């Protein structure tokens, strides 16, 4: 589910995604693989993938895998405004320019009624866009 949501952010044009690990209590090899893959994808696209450090056990897993030195860890930031800022892109169109915390962005989408079809399916009674 997290991978699908990260893919959605990338497809929406966000050039900086921050994954907050503070609430994570356990991470196995699938979580390490996801983080490593997202970091690699962001770098190859010229984008940025940052993490907010988790608890000692989560950080230890990343350390044992040799990723702490490779990954971009940032400081927690205040919640982003409800509407992401946009800037003109060469060649027309708009592109989000705000680095935004992953969970905050999803909460914004839900508040604005633009949740994904997967999330909308969970919210019974919500109209679906087709």
| CATH C-level label | Alpha Beta
Shape: globular
Report, as a whole number of angstroms, the end-to-end distance.
21 Å
Report mean pLDDT, rounded to a whole number: 75
What's the short version?
The chain is of the alpha/beta class and 130 residues long. The protein is built from 5 helices and 6 strands.
List keywords for this structure.
single chain; 130 residues; Transcription Regulator spoIIAA; four-stranded parallel β-sheet; two-stranded antiparallel ribbon; 5 helices; globular; disordered C terminus
Structure description:
The protein has helices at 2-11, 29-44, 56-64, 102-111, 117-122; strands at 16-20, 48-52, 72-74, 86-88, 94-96, 100-101. By secondary structure, the chain is α/β, with parallel strands linked by helices. The chain has a single domain (2-118), classed as STAS domain (Transcription Regulator spoIIAA, 2-Layer Sandwich), CATH 3.30.750. It has a four-stranded parallel beta sheet with strand order 3-2-1-6. Strands 4-5 form a two-stranded antiparallel ribbon. A hairpin with a 5-residue loop joins strand 4 and strand 5 (94-96). Mean pLDDT is 75; it is low at 82-87, 95-101 and 115-130.
């Amino acid at each position: 589910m997290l991978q699908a949501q990260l893919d959605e952010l990338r497809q929406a044009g966000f050039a900086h995604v921050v994954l907050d690990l503070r609430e994570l209590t356990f991470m196995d090899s699938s979580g390490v693989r996801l983080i490593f893959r997202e970091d690699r994808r962001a770098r190859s696209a010229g984008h940025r993938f940052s993490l907010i450090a988790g608890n000692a056990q989560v950080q230890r897993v990343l350390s044992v895998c040799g990723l702490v030195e490779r990954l971009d860890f940032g400081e927690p930031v205040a919640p982003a405004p409800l509407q992401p800022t946009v800037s003109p892109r060469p060649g027309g169109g708009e592109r989000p320019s705000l680095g935004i915390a992953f969970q905050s962005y999803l909460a914004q989408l839900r508040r604005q009624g633009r949740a994904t079809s997967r999330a909308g399916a969970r919210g019974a009674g919500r109209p679906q866009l087709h």
